[in-house]
Amino acid sequence: MSITAAVVLAAGEGERLRPLTRNRPKPMLPAANRPIIEYVFDALVDAGIEELHVVVGYKRDRVQGHVGSTYRGVPVTYHTQEKQLGSAHAALQARDALDDDFLVVNGDQIAQGDLVADVMATHDAESAVTLAVIESDDASMYGAVETDGDRVTRIVERPGGDEYRLLNAGVYACDASLFSAVEDAIGDGESLTMPNAISSLVESGFEVRAARTSGLWTDATYPWDLLAVGQQLLDRGDIDGTEVREGVWCADRVRIHEDAVLRPPVVVSSDSEIGANAVVGPHVALGQNVTVGSNATVERSVLDADTRVGAGSTLVDCVTGQGVSLGPGCVAPGGPADVAVGTTVHEDRRLGALVADRATARGGVTFVPGTLVGPNAELDAGTTVSGVIAENGRVMR
Amino acid sequence: MCGIVGCVGRPDETLDVLMTGLSNLEYRGYDSAGVALSNEALSVEKRAGELEELENAVRTTSLHGNVGVGHTRWSTHGAPTDANAHPHTDCSERVAVVHNGIIENYAELKNELQARGHTFESETDTEVLPHLVEEYLEAGTDPESAVREAIGRIEGSYAVGVVVAGVDAIFAAREDSPLVIGVADDEFHLASDVPAFLDYTDRVVYLDDGEFATLRPGGLTVMDAEGTPIEKPVETVDWDTEDTGKGGYDHYMLKEIHEQPQAIRQCLSGRVDELRGRVELEELDRLARPQRVQFVACGTSYHAGLYAAHLFREMGIPAQTFIASEYATSPPPVDEDELVVAITQSGETADTLSALREAKARGAETLALTNVVGSSVTRECDHTMYIRAGPEIGVAASKTFTSQLVAVNLLVEAMNGNDAGVLTGLRDLAGDLQSVLDRVDVTAAAERLAAAERCFFVGRGLNHPVALEGALKFKEITYVHAEGFPAGELKHGSLALVTDETPVVAVLTGDGEETQKTIGNIKEVESRGAPVIAVTDGQVELEGYVDEVIEVPATHAHVAPLLANAVLQLIAYRSADLLGRSIDKPRNLAKSVTVE
User: Which of the listed residues A149, B314, B391, B398 has the most CB atoms within 10 Å of its CB?
Assistant: First the structure.
């Protein structure tokens, strides 16, 4: 069955990635040096999709402003989900723009390889929904799928344990019965996710099929996952840019001092500058207009647009948001740490520091591993910071 | 401003191609539209009002023709009516003409023609042309020569497209008004601007002043003013139709406001080396530090010029800014030591081009600061610097003003030995402006201003041009009277208009003398009961003097006004939206003003 339209869900914030999502939704966070949503679009366009319908909500200007009205020549139409009432409710917002069967895809998870094509090939006129499933040891940590042959019998969210092997990759081919099910279920204004909606279709006796695929699937749930995702993409060489030598990708108009060292794999985006004797890499992604000062060392880090790393700083396992400014001699030695997200403490996570948009460290600041610095926070020179620094917070010496 | 389209070589689709072209030119602003198709006879339809009126009219008739021309009109001579809409025809209904520009000797020609028995249907200057062509045709002249002869009789500025019944050709000519030809194998398109035919081809021939072109299916010929055939280069434009959708926004203007961080990055890209503390402008490597500078510009670009002159004076170079239409008719003293900078987004602004020619005639070195690659101003100036803002469709300029100010800063730094603080400010600017878009809420300010009958915008120093631009933006799209002033000037007269019903928007960045004095001026209006909205970077305490504070990030004094300006754009947009105005196409206004 030929499918030409895809609904990309990009309305949710991604709370577990706070404080990075203060100014933009999770699909706009960087996977290596590009927003996650671009990988989703690439997979769809490569699979032959001719219409992109993007459901936006939380901080929608950031998605619209970045993507514009086409992506690689494919027209992009926006649909607004005013209240975040779940992914199935989000997909419903695009209903009027869709005629035939269509895809629904999460805009904040990276689905690559043959994944999209496999779902499109498996979907047929008898199926209400066909969803991509991947064999994975991590199935029980995400959405797990139970099947009978290629029929889906149940979808379970984060069941835990180790009895599940099939993971729901968040790529669905659907016919219009999805929307009827969603409408029935949310009549009373409750929220509804895609897995719940599909489960109710299964219960009502609709044909829901699993397309087993060997495609690649990656999700960043927590801030430190962005480092792992970046690392994976760099290791696979899945980087959009000119590979100037093996494992080193540089955009046009970057300025790299002749005495700087780039240790592959590493990607440097346009208008970034690297000073004399700086050592950048391995596993580093620099966004647009990033400056790494002379003698600085950056390892296994994702530094988003406009970040400045002062001379002589050392950053290991760090994630920075946009417009972060680190003065000279800042140190984040990296390594495993216990990180507090909301009310949960995650133990032994590899995170040197997470510094959110427009935070400033004046110089000589030491980041204890696992530190989360909120947006616009100011850290005085010479301070040592740890734990969680609030948005607009000030750490004085 | 008026738009011309034309098409030969698509006999079954002529009407569709013309209508698509007209719709692609809608953004230029217009008040009436029409088409003429040529077969054995001519078919002409034209309507005042929106393009939709014309679409309804052509749907009920069956217009056919191997060739055709179309036009969107922005009134200069005569009100927007069906009769005054183009194309205009002669008495025999054999010649149809679309025209942009102004025919200066039309009154004289019209009297002569009327004396010889021609009857006129419209009040336009254009209508003399078809009647002139008619006379030459009746005298036995071939159609091409008849059109050339007729054009030889007119004075003024023009871009013209002519079709003649029974002739499979469009005749076209230009003088001081833009005209381009799109080339696609055996079919040719005529247009006043490239987006008209981007759906069909990206290969373009730019006509120059005095040239005459004949477009026939299968062949294009261009002649110079003397009638000698010339070879014209075919250029490929890198514009993409993709950039011209609304991208999920209600209006192009809001989309363009949100595109500013990207526009800033594009303008700076490859031009700033922060670690070495240098700005490099390859395209201006032959331009030395000038003795004196004059800026000529109109509208929003004039405000960019005021900002630019301020920065040049700060670096010790005498600089002045002139409204181009005034400069053109009464130029100041100019000689070869002067650098004259023409600032025009479109590169086609007739007043600016006219001022530029006055300066060139007096020996000045010239620099174009523009957004449109290959536009007329780039071909007339000694040097060109592009602002790289990308296409702007909203009639009210937003991102192009920001990009102009960024480009001006680059120019100043390149000439003045590079101030590290400014370079840092420039590299921070995209992120800072993004932060304004992310964080600033102008709802309360917009509600207050939208409810007022008039309002004032004030600022000093570099914030003075920003106040002027804020007022211009506001009145353009809200239709509410707004005026901008240097903050210290209000008390010399206009303060008489300030009451508790006239909100005042004050722009103050930094904490220097200008800001302290602006606070004094705020107290003057506040004590007359005026509601005050302050746009500030938080360097001074304003609590108690103002009704509302809108804060932008603190940055270098040269770039802080750009952040304040973004707030004023948002205020204008939100106010106009509350009032339900036609934001992308305000009444009476045109995007690129190609008449003087």
Answer: B398
